[in-house]
Design a protein that fits this description.
Length: 142
Amino acid sequence: MLEHFPENVFLVPVKALRDEGTSYHYMKPSRFIDINATALSAIEAALKEHGLAYTEVTTWSTDGFYRETKAKIAYRKTEGCSVVEMECAALAACAQLRGAVLGELLFTADTLADIDAYSERNWGVDSYECALKLCFEAVKRL
């Protein structure tokens, strides 16, 4: 997490900043990639059906996790990124090329929100089962 979110909160990426290499093999260069609207609707409907709160976010996809410096984290936040992960942009680009529907449901686990003190917290273990069930429900809606 780049912003302060409590642990075990659901987040729905609506676009991803492309700071990894894979997505550039599947689509033309651009700074961001939008997440499929059909997938977003299905994911958000599953969350709403269960009365679960969520936040739509822009995510920073990077495979250079040892390069998450204080300056780079601050810069990504100015670009609107609330979270960081490794695969959203790559998977979205591949799905778009292949005509597949792809979305992601994230939940909070470790955090970089306090730049001076990384916290692994409990790795979001209380969210795994619920997130998996929500994803199955979202897929059934497609």
